[in-house]
Amino acid sequence: MRITVGKKTLVLGGALTIILIGIAVAILAAGGIVAWEYSNSNAFCTNNCHAVHPEEPRAYAVHAHARVQCVECHMGRLPTLQLMGLKMAHYHELLGMITGYERPLAGTTLRPARDSCEGCHWPSVDHDDTIRTKIHFEPDEKNTEVRTKLIVHTGSGTAREKATRGIHWHIDQNVEYVTDDVQKRTIPWVRITDKDGKVTEYLDASSKLSKAEIDRMQKRKMECVDCHNASGHPFKNPADRVDEAMADGRIDRSIPSIKARALAIIDKAATLHGPMEDQIGKFKQIIADAAPKGEQKPEQKAAEEKFAKAMLDILQLSEFEAKDLTWKSFPNHVGHKDFPGCFRCHDGKHVNAKGEAIRLQCTLCHDIPQVTVDGTLKTVASTKTPGLTPPDSHNAPNFMHDHRSKVDDTCQMCHGPLKWGKDGGNFCANPACHGRKWPEMSLDAKKT
Fold it and tell me: What's the rounded Cα separation, in Å, for the pair 112 and 76?
């Protein structure tokens, strides 16, 4: 091999030529590997590719999946060659970054759960039910603590294989649906195919879509992310973040009316928009303006400083740069506290050809909530005598909505003397169920 440089000619032997070519190929391969790894890194995804979503990296960094790479959900845990093909298929995203596009409010390219979620959460493995304790503080002078204990039916595998209830029943069945909203806030049609082949369709009686329109819509198989849609970077209700900070001591709950002050700060900060670095100074001013005036004892000053730091962290995780966006712009379909969630289907309005509704029954997913207000039991157990079997009427599809109209003296055999209300101390006065407003649902304890 001859290489001519100016007037000089370098003659290389065959072996040396092969070695040099090998080195060049190795350098190119190493560079390609480095470039490939960087293109799959969180830094690339959040800074170079998706800089249009400045709030999502902050939400991701403090969530349970913070050690899961972005691409593991958005591209899946797949062989490298397959991932390369998928990345090429996302060319339109690159085009949007160059030419500009409106910020999307929902992910449309997530991989099926089998290629992503199930890499860690294997559905065939036995999982037990879960005990959850939710702590809330009232915006009164004493910051009254309210604890709600739930036994959530998350069991799977053999724990649920013979049962007809439980949250993860949905992924063990062939459940299909259609939605007319990119964020899947509404689900007008559902089809369930049993393991014996029986097919049942449910249509939302309040939907304005015709059967012909529904027939033309895309049929989706229900997956993990249809409920766990905010698992990667959820935007929580900032009031919940305040409760969490008070529960773990980042905010001193002994400060009178501190919960009410925190909520007032959140409301005022919600009017601010623009780059976060510009908002931080304004956040600090709002927090300072809400602080008590006058001389303070050292311990009071320390508590106020801790409160100011916690509130600054909460505001940075809760406020958005674009003035047309808030945390409410990104629904979380798990549960039904701030968004319809479960009630998208379990609302008593999705009925089949026989007029039977998809079951509206809270205890499908969790036991009766037990509420304690500052150490005082405010509810009673679901039955007075252990081991009693609920009557068949309790399994009616719309029981939870209709039971108020079917109460009689026989109910007292299990639940004791019944008294309507929302202050606890009686089975029909559970503050976790009655006397509060749920999205798209009312469970007020009023006999009709």
Answer: 8
